[in-house]
Task: inverse folding
């Protein structure tokens, strides 16, 4: 089987991971953080499907990827609900301002 | 899956009633307390009846089979003798605790949360003992742990209750890790999660892997059953409302550990060192806890220590291979310990303190509670003809025949100690002179005996204390259903058990030791107070520190706290810097992999 | 060739989503990433997941973001992160280089040698072989719904007065407010902090440890 698309997809996985990691390191807005998390998880979905495809067990990969998508959607929903609630109660979404809660 | 028959229905109902009840109670809302009381009691009793109905139907076959896919195997429920018996104990004692709660909790807020958790707790325990799949067993195991945490911390505005709950959660999670390690090792070697398959094929597991499984399960059982060295959570769990304590001690939580050992004994018996380890854990727990119970002044703590001690007996019995005696003692213990706890609850409810030094002379004020408590205490001490006597004798006899002599001697001494601390407790609470700083003078003289719902629960348990030992024969037959192997012994009729116990010389010895304990207490009561202080000062000091185990706990906690303090500067509370840690850690792990590969 | 273009497109969209200064724009770039990813998944043979990714990832999640941003409002975002940019870049790239060096390129003799091609179709794998996953997903969705219902419960009157302008710094909402908005079933710690919150400390870790000792 032709492995070239898989290697390309793997580069895509690495790229998404890097972008997501950089985003998490630099983002200060809570909602933006949730967006970045979505990007990171897309890397995971792609990696699972890629691995399944490479191993000839695409449907196992798909099944796992589906679980990841569901879990990730829940993360997004709960994360956004949390962000909204934080915004309502504390009036800001900036993680640095929120960090003062600790002190 | 066989056609839907009565066994299947009852198995499902045993768990189902409780969980549906939990939802229903929440649904009713805290505004309708009578409704909640009714729903909780109704569903609990229904589940108890379902479990009782299951007793004659016990079978070694899986009656409920939920396909979970080829990766996980089927989730099965197997109502075999052992499982059905423990489910019945959990649900019947549990339903009595719920009935008791109607009076006990009548002033508490958030009744819905309380009942929902209690019902969920009992249901999880019933599911745990009926589960026929290791993964399912683990899931129920964790549910039980969660419920115990949430119920111990039920008074969540009280820091002590919260701390007690967290302690229970952390320690039992430690045990849960052992169970998980064992379950996963079993799956890794056998490729199957079914308990039945595991028991049948345990001999094909490589010895090293089997040892991991066996000791992992032992750690899990010791943590859950509050055995040495994991016993420290149980006394702190006393912050829970008293019916919950009764549940944890008699019906659900702590029995799970003994159940686990009994269930898997046939597979682990030949693992080198395992039986010795089990016996050691049991003997140490029984001895240490009995000493602690003798020193405690908090009524509920005394009962908690006595639970650890009695569980030590059961674990010891599993260690010597006497599964029947172990489970029979579990039955007796469930009945009399529930009785003692609910009785203590009635006392505490009335007096408003748990300090026994402030009690005394309560006997006249609450004769009903006094009578039932004394009966429970006699059973705990092992006085014939109450149920505790028979089962404890069976364990001692088996220990004499099948275990090391030193262990037998210690357990015998513990029987004496048990009698000693039991009589001390009864004396301090009901008969002794009211304490000097006693609030009893301000005690409401009109506050009378136990209210009706409490009486129903207590009366049923008193009856049980007198009669459960008569069930030895049928019980022995029940346990053999679905269990292979000779480990369970053949107990065909009650009469034979009675003959055996009465004929054995160990019975006489044990009775002498027990009456010695009584005599010591009697003699001690006549002496002025300083006699105790001078006589056993060192002993006392040692036990006062919980035999050093609480100190060990503190040392570990202190170590962790110190290192946490040192690491605290790294916790900036700022998201981006925390991510630096994650990314850096990933880089380090990958670098190691890259270098190693 | 087309896969290279697709991956390039995905990466560009992702970078744009990170760089965008307006939340709404970032969410739309994310939807673009998702859409392109769905096509790539389809090309790799994952037809069912591609559909799910398109409808959930590009559709539902985007709607959620737009909805959430509408409620929370666009906040003028400070473009400057807390970390120096070179450090962040280095930390993001270093693991990738290592990872890439470890696993690239995929060929048929390395990791893949041990696998045999599966024959079961998707529905078979999902429902028969991994039934537990489906169950867990259902539980997860249910838990998510309950969590959101709890979180988005109406803020009762009185809680809002805690809102202060960022200039004054953030005031800790009083504990009563945390509780009253939602029915917290199983969170005893929160109520436990009641005594400590009015001061400067939210329950310090050592206090919790000390309590655990007792």
Result:
């Amino acid at each position: 089987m032709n492995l070239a698309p898989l290697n390309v997809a793997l580069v895509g996985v690495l790229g998404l991971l890097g972008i997501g990691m950089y985003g998490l390191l630099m983002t200060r807005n809570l909602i933006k953080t949730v967006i970045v998390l979505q990007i990171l998880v897309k890397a995971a979905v792609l990696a699972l499907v890629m691995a399944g495809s490479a191993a000839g067990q695409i449907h196992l990969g798909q099944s796992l990827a589906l679980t990841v998508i569901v879990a990730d959607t829940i993360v997004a929903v709960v994360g956004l609900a949390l962000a909204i609630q934080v915004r309502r109660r504390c009036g800001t979404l900036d993680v640095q301002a929120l960090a003062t809660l600790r002190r | 899956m066989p056609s839907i028959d009565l066994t299947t229905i009852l198995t499902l109902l045993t768990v189902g009633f409780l969980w549906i009840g939990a939802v229903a109670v929440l649904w009713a809302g805290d505004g309708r307390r009578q409704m909640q009381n009714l729903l909780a009691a109704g569903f609990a009793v229904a589940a108890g009846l379902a479990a009782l109905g299951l007793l004659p139907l016990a079978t070694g076959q899986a009656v409920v089979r939920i396909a979970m896919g080829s990766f996980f195997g089927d989730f099965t429920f197997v109502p075999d003798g052992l499982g059905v018996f423990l489910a019945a104990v959990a649900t019947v004692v549990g339903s009595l605790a719920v009935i008791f709660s109607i009076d006990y909790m009548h002033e508490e807020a958030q009744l819905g949360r309380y009942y929902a958790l209690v019902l969920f707790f009992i249901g999880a325990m019933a599911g745990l003992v009926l589960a026929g799949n290791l993964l399912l067993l683990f899931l129920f195991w964790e549910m039980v742990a969660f419920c115990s945490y949430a119920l111990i911390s039920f008074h969540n505005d009280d820091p002590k209750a919260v701390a007690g709950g967290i302690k229970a959660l952390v320690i039992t999670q430690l045990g849960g890790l052992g169970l998980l390690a064992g379950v996963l090792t079993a799956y890794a070697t056998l490729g199957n999660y079914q308990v039945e398959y595991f028991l049948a094929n345990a001999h094909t597991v490589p010895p090293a892997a089997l040892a991991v499984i066996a000791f992992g399960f032992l750690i899990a059982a010791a943590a859950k059953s509050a055995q040495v060295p994991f016993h420290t959570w149980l006394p702190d769990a006393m912050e829970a409302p008293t019916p919950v304590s009764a549940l944890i001690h008699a019906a659900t939580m702590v029995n799970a550990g003994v159940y686990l050992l009994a269930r898997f004994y046939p597979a682990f018996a030949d693992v080198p060192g395992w039986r010795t380890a089990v016996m050691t854990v049991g003997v140490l727990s029984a001895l240490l806890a009995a000493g602690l119970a003798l020193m405690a002044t908090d009524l509920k703590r005394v009962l908690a220590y006595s639970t650890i001690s009695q569980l030590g007996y059961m674990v010891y019995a599993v260690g010597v291979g006497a599964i029947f005696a172990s489970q029979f003692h579990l039955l007796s213990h469930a009945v009399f310990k529930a009785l003692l706890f609910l009785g203590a609850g009635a006392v505490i409810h009335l007096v408003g303190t748990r300090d026994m030094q402030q009690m005394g002379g309560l006997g006249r004020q609450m004769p009903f509670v006094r009578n039932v408590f004394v009966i429970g205490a006699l059973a705990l001490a092992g006085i014939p003809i109450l149920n505790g006597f028979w089962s404890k004798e069976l364990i001692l006899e088996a220990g004499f025949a099948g275990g090391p002599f030193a262990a037998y001697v210690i357990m015998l001494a513990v029987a004496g100690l048990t009698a000693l601390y039991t009589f001390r407790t009864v004396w301090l609470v009901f008969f002794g002179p009211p304490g000097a700083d006693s609030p009893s003078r301000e005690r409401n003289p009109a506050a009378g005996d136990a209210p009706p719902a409490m009486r129903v629960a207590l009366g049923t348990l008193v009856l049980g204390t007198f009669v459960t030992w008569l069930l030895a024969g049928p019980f022995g037959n029940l346990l053999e259903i679905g269990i292979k192997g000779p480990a369970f012994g053949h107990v065909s009729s009650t009469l034979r058990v009675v003959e055996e116990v009465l004929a054995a010389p160990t019975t006489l010895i044990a009775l002498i030791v027990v009456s010695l304990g009584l005599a010591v207490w009697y003699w001690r009561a006549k002496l002025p107070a300083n006699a105790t202080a001078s006589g056993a000062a060192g002993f006392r000091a040692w036990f006062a520190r919980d035999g050093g185990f609480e100190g060990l706990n503190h040392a570990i906690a202190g170590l962790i706290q110190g290192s946490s303090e040192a690491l605290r500067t790294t916790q900036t509370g700022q998201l981006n810097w925390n991510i630096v840690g994650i990314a850096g850690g990933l880089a380090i792990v990958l670098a190691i992999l890259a270098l190693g590969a | 060739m087309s896969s290279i273009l697709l991956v390039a497109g995905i990466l560009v969209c992702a970078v744009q989503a990170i760089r965008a200064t307006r939340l709404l724009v970032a969410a739309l770039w994310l939807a673009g990433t998702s859409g392109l990813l769905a096509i790539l998944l389809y090309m790799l043979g994952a037809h069912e997941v591609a559909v799910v990714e398109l409808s959930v990832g590009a559709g539902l999640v985007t709607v959620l973001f737009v909805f959430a941003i509408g409620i929370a409002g666009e906040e003028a975002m400070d473009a400057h992160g807390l970390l120096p940019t070179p450090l962040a870049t280095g930390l993001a790239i270093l693991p990738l280089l290592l990872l890439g060096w470890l696993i690239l390129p995929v060929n048929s003799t390395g990791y893949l040698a041990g696998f045999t091609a599966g024959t079961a179709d998707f529905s078979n794998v999902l429902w028969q072989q991994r039934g537990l996953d489906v169950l867990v997903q259902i539980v997860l969705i249910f838990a998510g719904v309950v969590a959101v219902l709890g979180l988005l419960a109406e803020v009762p009157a009185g809680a809002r007065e805690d809102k202060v302008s960022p200039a004054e710094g953030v005031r800790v909402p009083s504990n009563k407010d945390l509780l009253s908005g939602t029915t917290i079933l199983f969170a005893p710690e929160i109520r436990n902090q009641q005594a400590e919150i009015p001061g400067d400390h939210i329950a310090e870790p050592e206090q919790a440890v000390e309590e655990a000792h007792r």
